[in-house]
Structures are given as structure tokens and as C-alpha cells.
Design a protein that fits this description.
24% of the residues are buried. The protein is globular and about 45 Å long. The chain has 168 residues and is mainly α. The protein has a single domain (3-167), classed as Up-down Bundle (Four Helix Bundle (Hemerythrin (Met), subunit A)), CATH 1.20.120. It has a three-stranded mixed β-sheet. It has seven helices and three strands.
Length: 168
């Protein structure tokens, strides 16, 4: 089995669960936040939408500079409603699946760097980037969003089995 096949199965499972959580974001709560230092529900949702969009660049480029010298710094795109988020999420998922399917085991072994202002923050194999900065990062922020849903008394979907809302 190729690395692409291994990643695709897990990617599809985690993104399907993530979509279930994104579907629960109410448009009237986009700007809600749990604490003044916290991000809004809308920002967390937008971040979950953008993460799978990083797959193609990770597999086809050698680096990403978050604040390229002389260029505009990267910002999480803002969304004003759930429908826009879901449409972009679905597009990012389709693009990511195509990129994963096209990658060879050798592509996953190539180094990739995250930079800021031209300075390298880290370099690691592309497989590690997909594992940590796409899959694990998605699971982390999906849980974050589930807590926000719970705090707003919005039923939380089951992800690895039924949730308390689905059992009751």
C-alpha cells in the first residue's frame, strides 16, 4: 500500500467528521467567542476550512512563507456564513484528495519548509507536514469547535462513535 493510499483513507475519514461539525455552525453565532482572548466560532470554522487547502501546496512546493518579504502576509480568509464555508471546504477537500492521490512515496519523503519573513521556521518531510499540520491540526481545531458548539447548547455530532447528544 502506498503512502498516498494510507493518507487518503485517514484524510477522508477526518474530513467527513470535520464537515459534520462545520455543518453545525449557526450563522447567527459566527462572531461568538468563549473569552475575549479566544477566536470566534467563525474564525475556527474558517481555519478548519483552509487547512485541507494546504495539502496541494505542501506536496507541490518546497516551502510556504507566511510573511513573504515584500509581499502580503497570509491571513485566514473570513467567512460570513456556513454555506460559504462548506462550499470552500468541499472544494479544498477535492483538491487535496487529487494532490494526495497523485503523490508518490518519494514525494512524501521530500523536505518542506515553513517560513516567516524569509526565515525558515522548520523543515520536515512532507509526510510529517501532512500528518501534523493537516490531520492533527484539523483534529485539534475540530475539538475546539465542538467545545464552542457545546457552550452554545448546539448538539455536537458523533465523530468516532455517537456523541452524548446522539445517545440521549
Amino acid at each position: 500500500m502506498s503512502l498516498a493510499d494510507l493518507f487518503l483513507g485517514e484524510f477522508e475519514q477526518e474530513m467527513a467528521g470535520t464537515r459534520k461539525v462545520l455543518e453545525r455552525i449557526p450563522d447567527d453565532k459566527i462572531n461568538w467567542k468563549a473569552h475575549p482572548k479566544s477566536n470566534t466560532i467563525g474564525w475556527v470554522g474558517a481555519h478548519l476550512v483552509e487547512i485541507p487547502g494546504w495539502v496541494e501546496g505542501t506536496l507541490t512546493q518546497d516551502a510556504w512563507d507566511l510573511q513573504p518579504p515584500g509581499g502580503e502576509p497570509y491571513r485566514t480568509p473570513p467567512w460570513t456564513n456556513r454555506a460559504e464555508m462548506l462550499a470552500t471546504f468541499d472544494k479544498n477537500i477535492a483538491d487535496a484528495k487529487r494532490a494526495l492521490a497523485a503523490a508518490s512515496d518519494g514525494d512524501f519523503a521530500k523536505p518542506w519548509s515553513l517560513k516567516m519573513g524569509g526565515q525558515t521556521l522548520f523543515t520536515m518531510p512532507r509526510a510529517a507536514v501532512i500528518r501534523t499540520f493537516v490531520l492533527n491540526h484539523t483534529v485539534h481545531h475540530r475539538a475546539h469547535l465542538c467545545v464552542y458548539l457545546r457552550l452554545n447548547d448546539i448538539p455536537v455530532p458523533g465523530l468516532y462513535g455517537p456523541s452524548a447528544d446522539e445517545q440521549g
